[in-house]
Amino acid sequence: MAVLARPREARIVAQIVTGAVVPPAPPAEKPRLATTPDAARLVASAEAQVGVTRRYDPAYVALAFLGGDVASDRGVCSDVLIRALRTAHGIDLQLAVNRDMKSAFTAYPALWGLTRPDSNIDHRRVPNLETFLTRAGARVPLGRTGADFLPDDIVTSRVPGNRPHVMIVTDCLAPDGTPMVVHNIGAGTRIEAALFDHDLTAQFRLTPALIAGLARTAD
What is the pTM of this model? Predict the structure, then answer.
């Protein structure tokens, strides 16, 4: 394996490959952005996973349907979003993505050799979430500076090895004024100053109307 030039990237790749567990440090008290009640609920639901989800585990798991979830102590980046949306807004991405894929299967990436939707895994795959959120009308122009991102924005990127990744923007500010994110990039759910660590690919924003519409798909 080639040695990465940047130590942080080398650490991230090692964590992802090995599933290493590193206990998260309690987040220090930081300046907070003013935000909406909807955004505050989503951010709080994501942050509540810190110290609970302590492993990065991409294993395929047969899930209950509806409301399926892997064990709470483990998961991948998408599980942070899945759990936060379910807790904060009653949005079940497992059901919502499954329904949309059944109605428009060819609109989704053909990256895994599937011929039909799989409710165990489809909603846990970041390219599928990018497609679903775009089709739902949540996509906004990709920001270039920290000021372009609001608390509860959903942001995707590609980490070393072209691995898709998803993060939730928080109302916490890093020392340079950039919003921090909550995500699981290799060692459990954490709040980190990592928004611009890797090439961003898409940005999504859930308006009250979108939240209401997505919550109805869980009925």
Answer: 0.86
